[in-house]
Amino acid sequence: MSSLTVPLYRLAHGRTGDKGDRSNISVIAWHEALYPLLVGQVTEDAVARQFALRQPRSVRRYLLPRLGAMNFVLDEVLDGGVNDALNLDTHGKALSYLLLDLPVEVPAPLQAYLKD
Protein backbone atom coordinates (compact mmCIF):
# COMPACT_ATOMS: atom_id res chain seq x y z
CA MET A 1 0.00 0.00 0.00
CA SER A 2 1.24 3.47 -0.78
CA SER A 3 0.61 6.98 0.40
CA LEU A 4 -1.43 9.47 -1.59
CA THR A 5 -1.00 13.25 -1.77
CA VAL A 6 -4.33 15.10 -1.71
CA PRO A 7 -5.52 18.64 -0.95
CA LEU A 8 -6.34 19.36 2.69
CA TYR A 9 -10.06 19.77 1.94
CA ARG A 10 -10.31 15.99 1.53
CA LEU A 11 -9.30 15.62 5.21
CA ALA A 12 -10.87 18.69 6.79
CA HIS A 13 -13.13 21.68 6.40
CA GLY A 14 -12.42 25.26 7.42
CA ARG A 15 -13.89 28.57 8.50
CA THR A 16 -12.41 32.03 8.34
CA GLY A 17 -12.84 35.12 10.47
CA ASP A 18 -11.06 38.44 10.64
CA LYS A 19 -10.27 41.29 12.97
CA GLY A 20 -8.40 44.24 11.53
CA ASP A 21 -5.44 42.97 9.54
CA ARG A 22 -5.55 39.55 11.24
CA SER A 23 -7.17 36.39 9.86
CA ASN A 24 -8.31 33.40 11.91
CA ILE A 25 -8.65 30.19 9.93
CA SER A 26 -9.95 27.05 11.57
CA VAL A 27 -9.28 23.57 10.24
CA ILE A 28 -11.58 20.80 11.46
CA ALA A 29 -10.88 17.16 10.65
CA TRP A 30 -13.67 15.26 8.90
CA HIS A 31 -12.78 12.24 11.09
CA GLU A 32 -10.90 11.98 14.38
CA ALA A 33 -8.54 9.40 12.86
CA LEU A 34 -7.22 12.12 10.53
CA TYR A 35 -6.41 14.63 13.27
CA PRO A 36 -2.88 13.35 14.14
CA LEU A 37 -1.99 13.52 10.46
CA LEU A 38 -3.19 17.14 10.33
CA VAL A 39 -1.16 18.01 13.42
CA GLY A 40 1.94 16.50 11.81
CA GLN A 41 1.61 18.15 8.41
CA VAL A 42 -0.51 21.31 8.74
CA THR A 43 2.11 23.18 10.70
CA GLU A 44 2.85 26.87 11.11
CA ASP A 45 5.70 26.54 8.60
CA ALA A 46 3.52 24.74 6.04
CA VAL A 47 0.80 27.39 6.37
CA ALA A 48 3.36 30.21 6.09
CA ARG A 49 4.64 28.65 2.83
CA GLN A 50 1.06 28.29 1.53
CA PHE A 51 0.46 32.01 2.21
CA ALA A 52 3.87 33.23 1.01
CA LEU A 53 2.29 35.46 -1.66
CA ARG A 54 0.21 37.22 1.03
CA GLN A 55 3.35 37.70 3.19
CA PRO A 56 1.85 37.29 6.68
CA ARG A 57 4.02 38.84 9.40
CA SER A 58 3.44 35.77 11.58
CA VAL A 59 1.52 32.48 11.62
CA ARG A 60 0.51 30.90 14.93
CA ARG A 61 -1.29 27.60 15.40
CA TYR A 62 -3.53 26.64 18.32
CA LEU A 63 -4.42 22.97 18.69
CA LEU A 64 -7.89 21.90 19.84
CA PRO A 65 -7.54 18.10 20.11
CA ARG A 66 -10.88 17.48 21.84
CA LEU A 67 -12.55 19.05 18.79
CA GLY A 68 -10.23 17.48 16.23
CA ALA A 69 -9.46 21.00 15.13
CA MET A 70 -6.80 23.68 14.98
CA ASN A 71 -6.92 27.44 14.61
CA PHE A 72 -4.41 29.51 12.69
CA VAL A 73 -3.88 33.21 13.34
CA LEU A 74 -2.18 35.05 10.49
CA ASP A 75 -1.09 38.63 11.20
CA GLU A 76 -0.94 41.34 8.54
CA VAL A 77 -2.36 39.13 5.83
CA LEU A 78 -5.42 41.22 4.81
CA ASP A 79 -3.66 44.14 3.10
CA GLY A 80 -4.47 46.42 6.02
CA GLY A 81 -7.91 45.07 6.90
CA VAL A 82 -11.49 45.70 5.84
CA ASN A 83 -11.31 49.49 5.80
CA ASP A 84 -7.89 49.80 4.16
CA ALA A 85 -7.65 46.94 1.65
CA LEU A 86 -8.36 47.44 -2.03
CA ASN A 87 -8.73 43.74 -2.79
CA LEU A 88 -12.14 42.19 -3.47
CA ASP A 89 -12.07 39.91 -0.43
CA THR A 90 -11.37 42.46 2.31
CA HIS A 91 -12.56 40.09 5.07
CA GLY A 92 -10.35 37.29 3.73
CA LYS A 93 -13.22 34.81 3.66
CA ALA A 94 -11.61 33.02 0.72
CA LEU A 95 -8.38 32.43 2.64
CA SER A 96 -9.69 29.17 4.06
CA TYR A 97 -9.92 27.91 0.48
CA LEU A 98 -6.27 28.74 -0.05
CA LEU A 99 -5.36 26.81 3.09
CA LEU A 100 -7.63 23.88 2.19
CA ASP A 101 -5.64 23.49 -1.04
CA LEU A 102 -2.49 22.61 0.97
CA PRO A 103 -1.11 19.21 -0.15
CA VAL A 104 -1.20 16.50 2.54
CA GLU A 105 0.34 13.05 2.27
CA VAL A 106 -2.08 10.38 3.48
CA PRO A 107 -0.89 6.84 4.24
CA ALA A 108 -2.99 4.01 2.84
CA PRO A 109 -4.66 2.97 6.15
CA LEU A 110 -6.21 6.46 6.50
CA GLN A 111 -7.35 6.91 2.90
CA ALA A 112 -10.75 5.36 3.70
CA TYR A 113 -11.56 8.52 5.73
CA LEU A 114 -10.98 10.95 2.84
CA LYS A 115 -13.91 12.93 1.45
CA ASP A 116 -14.39 13.05 -2.30
Give the arrangement of secondary structure elements.
Blueprint: E1 4-7, E2 12-19, E3 22-29, H1 35-41, H2 44-50, E4 58-64, E5 69-75, H3 95-99, E6 103-106
Antiparallel strand pairs: 1-6, 2-3, 3-5, 4-5
Continuous helix count: 3
Helix content: 10-25%
Order of helices and strands: EEEHHEEHE
Largest sheet: 4 strands, antiparallel
Mean pLDDT over the full residue set: 91
Integer-rounded radius of gyration: 14 Å
- Percentage beta strand: 25-35%
Structural class: alpha+beta
Spatial sequence of strands, sheet with the most strands: 2-3-5-4
Q: Which consecutive residue ranges, at least 5 long each, have pLDDT under 50?
A: none
Which terms summarize this structure?
116 residues, alpha+beta, four-stranded antiparallel sheet, two-stranded antiparallel ribbon, 33% strand
Describe the overall structure.
The protein has 116 residues and is of the alpha+beta class. The radius of gyration is 14 Å and the shape is elongated. The strands form two sheets. Strands 2-3-5-4 form a four-stranded antiparallel beta sheet. Strands 1-6 form a two-stranded antiparallel ribbon. The model has no long low-confidence stretch (mean pLDDT 91). The chain has three helices and six strands.
In a few lines, what is going on in this structure?
By secondary structure, the protein is α+β, with helices and mostly antiparallel strands. The chain has helices at residues 35-41, 44-50, 95-99, and strands at residues 4-7, 12-19, 22-29, 58-64, 69-75, 103-106.
